[in-house]
Amino acid sequence: MYGLASCSVQLELELFLSTAALVLLLLLPALMYHLNMNTRWHYRYDVYVSHSDRDESWVMNSLLPFMTQQGPPFLRLCLPRRDFQLGKDIVENITDGLYRSRRTLCLVSRHFLRSNWCSLEMRLGTYRLQAEHRDVLILVFLEKIPSNLLSAHHRLARLVKTRTYMEWPQDPAQQQAFWDLLWDKLVAGKNY
């Protein structure tokens, strides 16, 4: 009744099932890690800083020193020049940085408006804002932008009409209040 052929089938089935179970056990931690990375409470960065290269000096001389002097909690900033992976496609770097950050901080200036990369970051930030229905996009105007210049940038013009934004004060006496407000906005909702 039971010959060598039926033993072979039984052995093959047992090998298949044990191999499948082993593969599943090996893939399970990777799957759990991937799912954990995609939860909205687990981010690599707290803030993705979107800015024009021409505003890099403001970022390095004003924003970064302020952020490193504040805390706890200490915020992790994603700065493209510092944190993008070398050799990786720029669009992929932007997308990864933006979606792996709790918030996106757009530093709007005339240079920002002329930059195609900043335009892409703004587009991705507004998509994310609409998709997640949470306050993930913070606008800071580094300078006064005339409404006729702003109106050419439809997405940003719409955001300015519907959302609260901040303006960098040129008066040094008002700058501490600006930093305090920005800090409160960036830290709001951070899980410790």
Q: Explain this structure to me?
A:
With 192 residues, this protein is α/β, with parallel strands linked by helices. The chain has 2 domains: 1-38; 45-187, Toll/interleukin-1 receptor homology (TIR) domain (Rossmann fold), CATH 3.40.50. The chain is built from 9 helices and 5 strands, in the order αβαβααβααβααβα. Strands 2-1-3-4-5 form a 5-stranded parallel sheet, sandwiched between helices. The protein is elongated, with a radius of gyration of 24 Å. The model has no long low-confidence stretch (mean pLDDT 82).
Write the layout of secondary structure elements.
Blueprint: H1 4-37, E1 45-50, H2 56-69, E2 77-78, H3 80-83, H4 90-99, E3 101-108, H5 110-114, H6 116-132, E4 137-141, H7 147-150, H8 154-162, E5 166-167, H9 172-187
Parallel strand pairs: 1-2, 1-3, 3-4, 4-5
Helix pairs in contact: 4-6
CATH superfamily of the largest domain: Toll/interleukin-1 receptor homology (TIR) domain
By CATH, the architecture of the largest domain is named 3-Layer(aba) Sandwich
Structural class comes to alpha/beta
The portion of residues assigned to helices is 55-70%
**H and E order:** HEHEHHEHHEHHEH
| CATH class call of the largest domain | Alpha Beta
Q: What is the CA-based Rg, rounded?
A: 24 Å
Strand content: 5-15%
Domain unit count: 2
Q: CATH topology of the largest domain, anyone?
A: Rossmann fold
Per DSSP E runs of 2 or more residues, the count of β-strands stands at 5
The strand line-up of the biggest sheet is 2-1-3-4-5
Major beta sheet summary = 5 strands, parallel
Low-confidence stretches: none
Task: Estimate the global geometry from the Cα principal axes.
Answer: elongated
Contiguous helical run count: 9
